[in-house]
């Protein structure tokens, strides 16, 4: 119900070479058998419907999701990138935008996160106005100004309006004030490359900052922290579903 390990062996294994901020990045869609030396945990937050699921799906699978459903609790999507010769798992935590599906789980989403991605919908001013709330939630969970953060204005494929343009200016300003890069993109039709570039650049930045060391031994599937993490997440999300249902 809650878990989508997109790309886990479901996708054609292809990769291409590109560069992000001067780094050599081999992009490979994650397969279950791929080994990696460390994991970057990135939380993706924003109002319900801004496109968090679509963006994370797009990055991890290279495809546009034919349909999405409101996220309950959290979804996990992963992709292994080869950055400067090191295989790194980029784990995107696609969190629920709706308050009733977050509740007491919030602190677990943020625990040990290396970066946060804030998303708003350029066609929905309210989703932009909510950003301070998401920034504050992150700050309260130890993802403050020292943590790499990115602001994304999604759905630029929708017709531009005067309001959208003025909101973009305000978004630029907000990003500047909070010291984070601001990107416009679309998870829909043809926007995949841009989405790729945004998340890849963030992963490169995390590598340069030395994040995620000492998490998992490459190729080892016995007693790994990743396995324990994964089991923990399943348990936590089950508890959350039960609490929502009751
Ligand atoms: N036109 C357009 N529609 C998009 C884009 N990204 C997402 N959508 C649509 O917006 C709707 C919501 O997308 P989701 O990805 O489910 O949004 P979300 O932020 O994950 O929502 P919650 O799970 O409720 O927090 C869906 O109908 C998507 O198809 C985009 O870039 N352009």
Automatic annotation (TrEMBL):
It holds the Pfam family Ras. The keyword GTP-binding applies. Keywords: GTP-binding, Nucleotide-binding. The keyword Nucleotide-binding applies. Transmembrane segments: none annotated. SUPFAM superfamilies: P-loop containing nucleoside triphosphate hydrolases. Signal peptide: none annotated. It comes from the Eukaryota. SMART domains: ARF, RAB, RAN, RAS, RHO. One of its GO terms (molecular function) is GTPase activity. Gene3D superfamilies: P-loop containing nucleotide triphosphate hydrolases. NCBIfam families: small_GTP (TIGR00231). Belongs to the small GTPase superfamily. Rab family. This is RAB33B, member RAS oncogene family a. It comes from Electrophorus electricus. The lineage of its organism: Eukaryota, Metazoa, Chordata, Craniata, Vertebrata.
């Amino acid at each position: 119900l809650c878990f989508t390990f997109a790309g886990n062996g479901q996708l054609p294994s292809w990769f291409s070479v590109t560069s992000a901020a001067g780094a050599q990045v081999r992009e490979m869609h994650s397969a279950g058998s791929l080994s990696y030396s460390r994991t970057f945990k990135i939380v993706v937050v924003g109002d319900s419907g801004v496109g968090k699921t679509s963006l994370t799906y797009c990055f991890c699978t290279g495809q546009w999701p034919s349909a999405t459903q409101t996220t309950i609790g959290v979804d996990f999507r992963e992709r292994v990138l080869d950055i400067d010769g090191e295989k790194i798992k980029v784990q995107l935590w696609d969190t629920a935008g709706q308050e009733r599906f977050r509740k007491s789980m919030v602190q677990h989403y943020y625990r040990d996160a290396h970066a946060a991605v804030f998303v708003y919908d350029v066609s929905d001013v309210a989703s932009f106005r909510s950003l301070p709330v998401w920034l504050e939630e992150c700050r309260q969970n130890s993802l403050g100004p020292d943590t790499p953060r990115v602001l994304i204005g999604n759905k630029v494929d929708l017709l531009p309006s005067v309001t959208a343009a003025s909101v973009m200016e305000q978004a630029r300003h907000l990003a500047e004030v909070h010291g984070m890069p601001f990107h416009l993109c679309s998870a829909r039709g043809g926007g995949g490359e841009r989405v790729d570039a945004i998340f890849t650049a963030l992963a490169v930045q995390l590598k340069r900052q030395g994040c995620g060391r000492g998490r998992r031994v490459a190729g080892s599937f016995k007693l790994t922290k990743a396995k324990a993490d994964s089991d923990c997440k399943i348990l936590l999300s089950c508890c959350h579903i039960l609490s929502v249902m009751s």
